[in-house]
Design brief:
five-stranded parallel β-sheet; binds adenosine monophosphate; 9 helices; three-stranded antiparallel β-sheet
């Protein structure tokens, strides 16, 4: 199972990627999570990526492609992976194709999660993310059982630095300009599927599972 989740920030990619990874017993790979961890650790990668991530801009293609190339060659990816937040540009998608070609592999499914733009702002502004496992909750639509505590692992929920209104608006512009064209790219490639991203998390999950079988 090699699957890419497309969709704007706040469409639920991260949550669905986690659920799909568990169902199909493959790793969920989020470039955003990898970059946030690097920033937390203050590694060289983190230092290079920090200003872009905090401003809601994209980290350069070479850096993120390099990360993914290494990651998908690891043994736990032998049966596939769920990509969340990568690719985000046409160049990244082309490089991913070239890497998979060289490994005699290909993407099975690309699922685009569709959510109205005004809902995205609401979703992102009340979002709490777990420091430990990255799970996401929302004060109104998916409240954790205990305020500020992750239901999955008991970790602390925090508001991501880039989930403030100004940066969210920037991320949506970047999505429209850089990432949305990927829909056409994968439509032409013949593996684009579209799922409505609204409703309960379980409903969206069921829609995706129905698409991919
Ligand atoms: P995400 O957690 O997917 O919303 O990503 C958070 C931030 O990490 C983005 O706003 C970008 O700054 C950076 N980022 C994540 N994935 C990529 C990517 N594939 N290409 C460039 N930048 C990325």
């Amino acid at each position: 199972m090699k699957l890419i989740l497309l969709g704007p920030p706040g469409s639920g990619k991260g949550t669905q990627a986690r659920m799909l990874a568990e169902k199909y017993s493959v790793p969920g790979i989020s470039t955003g999570d990898i970059l946030r961890q690097a920033i937390e650790e203050n590694s060289d990668l983190g230092k290079r990526a920090q200003s872009c991530v905090e401003a809601g801009e994209l980290v350069d293609d070479e850096t993120v492609v390099g990360l993914i190339k290494e990651r998908i060659k690891e043994p736990d990816c032998a049966n596939g992976f769920i990509l969340d937040g990568f690719p985000r540009t046409i160049v990244q998608a082309e490089k991913l194709n070239a890497t998979l070609d060289a490994m005699a592999q290909k993407i099975d499914f690309v699922v685009d999660l569709v959510v109205d733009e005004e809902d995205l702002l609401i979703r992102l502004s009340g979002r709490g993310t777990c420091r430990d496992c990255g799970a996401m909750f929302h004060e109104k639509t998916r409240a954790p059982k205990k305020t500020g505590v992750c239901d999955n692992c008991g970790g602390e929920l925090y508001q991501r630095q880039d989930d403030n209104e100004e940066t969210v608006l920037k991320r949506l512009v970047v999505y429209r300009e850089e990432t949305a064209p990927l829909k056409e790219f994968y439509r032409k490639q013949g593996n684009l599927q579209t799922a409505r991203g609204f409703g309960a998390v379980e409903e969206v999950f069921a829609r995706i599972c129905a698409l991919i079988g």
